Amino acid sequence: MRVRRRSFGDFVKAFLAFAVLLVLVVGVPLALAVTAGWPLPDGMPGLDWLQREITVSTFLHILTVVVWFAWAQFTACVLVEVKAALSGVGVPGRVPGSGPSQLLARQLVAALLLVGATAASLTPGLSQLGQSLEGNQQPSVAAAQQTPGLFAQQQEQAASTANALAEQAGQAAARADSGSAAHGDTKYYRIQPPEGRHHDSLWEIADRHLGDGRRYKEIFELNKDRVQPDGSKLSEASLIRPGWIMEMPGDARGGELVELPDEAPSVSEQVQQQISDYAQTGDQAQGSGGSGAGSGGGAQGAGDAQVSLPEQRPAPGPANPVTPAAPAPSTGQEHAATPAEAGRSFGLPEALLAAPLLAAGLLGALGRRRRQALWQSALGSVGGRRGMEPPTPTGDAQDAQDALLVGADPEGVRLLDRSLRGLAAALAAESRPLPVVYAAWMSSNGDLHLQLAQPAGKPPTPWQLGQDQTFWMLARADAEGYEDADTAAPYPGLVSLGTMDDSRLLLNLEAVPGLVSLSGTEADRAAVFASVAAELATNGWSDRMTITLVGFGDDLTPLAPNRIRHLDGFEDLFETMSAETRQRRGALGAAGHDSVLTGRTGPAQHTRWAPHLVLLAAQPSDEDALRLAELAADASRLGIGYLVGTEGTDLPGAAWEMEITGEGRLLAPLLGLELEAQLLPAAQQRAVVELFTDADPGRGPGGPANTPPFLVDVSEQGRPAVYARLVGSYEIIGLDAPDGDRSAQLHEALALLLLHREGVHPRVLASALWPRGATEDVRDALLERLRAWLGTDPDGTPRLGTDAGGRLTLAKSVVSDLDVLRSLYYEATQGRGVDSRQVRGRLLTDALVLVRGPLLADRPEGRYRWLTHEIIDAQLPLLVADTGLALSEFHLERNRAEKAIEALNAALRTAPADERLWHELLRATHATDDTGRLHALAADLIGRSGARGLPPRTEALLDELLPTWRDGVAAAG
């Protein structure tokens, strides 16, 4: 044992500590006994003392009792600390309600014991005495939630790792030369069982015995790959087991440590022998560990802990083509614009083009927002007196929308979502828990790789083991066989960070064992934060989620008002998250779950355990960062993740550290990552937000209506040269049929242009026709064929032109029946029909005659997939319903109920789900005074409603028009 040389100052501190203890422990009770007497009464007090007047004497007696209690508490603290120091307990028990008193007692006892022979090994150093009692007493937390675990083993900073290993090797050689004398400087720790406490962890061991939890890496390097008493090895910092032996750094202190087996009589002979055997493995383990830590590439074994690029399977041949899950950011998709095209305004925001999952999420959310606004507008009026068209984006917003259309990979999102839910369902069927997933890689050949925190056995079919036991892999062909699974999203915290060798990395933020820090310039950090927030808010592989933004992102709320919330500063964040952390811990305990992962596969999977991800853009102070790190120590078990911005490279308490460079590279040396970062710069962020804000126009039913983007001359003089029928089966009048092999492609291209009279970007057109990508020459050849097929007007003007922004536009002589339908309805409700009832009736009747069925009713299988991004499928039924309602109102004004019924039935053939049409049909049928006919209509409505039952407003209307309708339902039942 090493004995610390004591200085004169130590003796002075010890003497003062002894004097203070003597005064507080002995002097205080003597003084109280002399001046105030014994605190306990001589006999049993009567009830009359409760009615006595409170005098100065009574107050002094109460104060004396309080002082006696304080002395007794302090004396108990002294006894506990002395017992702990002399017996080698290391971390003494806590006296209830005595935080400051026990801290003072600990300081005094430690100072006194500095003059003892065993003080250096039995008590904490004076440098640790200032730590709070709560810090020394906080329970151990599961290692996987407090240490960087999988991501921090192999590629730590090269220079510091090499120096540390060299120093360890030198120490090992010195011990080998000096024999048993050298072993006297070596301390060991035995991992404690989790009896009445959380599982022990390297972080807590380092915190107790080295004074800093972040020094767990030193313990890990000393013990990595050494054979433990149970025959296993320490291969991951997050995986330690009770009974294992840990060699400790030389400056470790504390009573739980064993200096040498033969000098620790309190340790059993079996443990002594285990420590002796373990000590013999040190040199070999350090040598192998050094070589392992220094290696940076190559395939990794099951025990290696790092985010590593998955091994790629050979790409399928031409006979089995596979769509890349994500284009590489450096090149975009195959039909990316060249610099020359960019000069002709062909360029689009590359940040959105290079983010296929983010673009798909934004595009899907934008479509839902526009449909919601459309339906809200429809339900706000009768007869359709409002505009049917959402605002047409212009400028940067239009470029952003085009970039979303080109860059989005909705198929990749669909496969990712189905694959993850399918995995969760398969594991639940086998009664297996969800493994902790740190990251997911979407490879260039379409495969999905999940990187696990630790081996979890053989994955369920069709998943396979990847390059090692910590990788589960699903081939794209197998993913396409998955159906929609009725299970909760297992890993909703996955978010894209960027690409590496054409593989896209999604980091599972809610599984991070602590804080994730992001350093770099403010603008670069903001682009990463915006990208992460936008994808989390709109992704398609999560159900419910809360995203808390602190210090940025006020304008991102329109992306997902139900998910995003803002807090003003750190104190608000700390207060909010402290309460939620306590609530989640209690809820997990009450439900009997170890973590949110087990909760997501249980009966309450759809209603609980949604993740809460916190994005803190502004760097907190060191004190606040440590408070947040302590709060985040158990966060991964609770489904809470933290991403914190920092100006420097060192955030106190950070488990994982990343840096964004000015060149758009995302670096994480300790994680072994160098990515082409996924960003959402400020300009693109504003443009995307503008798309969402425009989708929610602040106008009521009586507000200004949007004019259709293209109005047709509906008079006899306005006959078009080319007329396409889109509502119903697809027909074209005025053009010769194109070549058979090219016909379907040209028809699809023309339909896209007809549905976007404002113009279509060439890259959007190519992306719609070839979702898997096409080269520029293929796109240009299509445009030439399309121009040749459409031809020119009599004045020589090409019918397919290009506007100033480089977008493709059709001449006014090329018209569709949808254009005519919109124009007729507009003229009837906002044009000539407003002042002339006769004109209004004729226009509405002509409009309803055009309706022959749904849009492009006979479109070929596999084509027109771009329609999923459009809202025309919602616009057309509403437009038809509005036309039918307006024509019904026109006829009912003249008591022509049969004509009104005829118009409503015609509209219902295209819009059968519109509740307004059924209501008007009930009113029109009631106007015929035919009760039997009304009963038949009510029975038809009830049959259509099925198990859901009639909507409340429909029931109320039937109660008004046909009070006996419920009798018929009862009789039928």
From TrEMBL:
User: Which residue intervals correspond to the TPR repeats?
Assistant: 881-914
Mark the transmembrane ranges: 57-82, 103-122
InterPro entries, sorted: Bact_Kbp, BTAD, LysM_dom_sf, TPR-like_helical_dom_sf, TPR_rpt
The name this protein carries in UniProt is: Bacterial transcriptional activator domain-containing protein
Name the source organism: Streptomyces thinghirensis
Q: Where is the Bacterial transcriptional activator domain?
A: 816-962
Q: Where is the composition biased (Pro residues)?
A: 313-327
Region ranges (Disordered): 280-340
Which keywords label this protein?
A: Membrane, TPR repeat, Transmembrane, Transmembrane helix, Two-component regulatory system
Compositional bias (Gly residues): 287-301
Q: Which PROSITE patterns match?
A: TPR
